[in-house]
Design goal:
The protein has a single domain, classed as Orthogonal Bundle (Non-ribosomal Peptide Synthetase Peptidyl Carrier Protein, Chain A), CATH 1.10.1200.10. Helix 1 crosses helix 2. With 79 residues, the chain is mainly α. The chain contains 4 helices and no strands.
Length: 79
């Protein structure tokens, strides 16, 4: 999958977690803009890992602060 396909898939996965209906862009942050708490992050990461059949390590998760970084990380992990 290329970045655009990964982006599209993650956008559909984020819908149920985006309770405030925030417009998601590459610079959208999970903690501030989407107001994800730690449990929501864990559920969201699990959904991504299942969808793409990858594992996002705790170290990688700590480095991912915004949506664009997540899409880049998932794209990279797939290759």
């Amino acid at each position: 999958m290329d970045r655009a396909e990964v982006d599209s898939s993650i956008r559909s996965l984020i819908e149920p977690f985006n309770k405030k209906g925030v417009e998601v862009a590459d610079n959208t942050t999970f903690a501030n803009d989407l107001e994800f708490d730690s449990l929501t992050v864990m559920d969201f990461v699990a959904a991504i890992e299942d969808e793409f059949d990858i594992i996002i390590s705790m170290n990688q998760q700590a480095e991912i602060e915004n949506y664009g970084q997540l899409v880049d990380a998932v794209t990279k992990l797939q290759n």
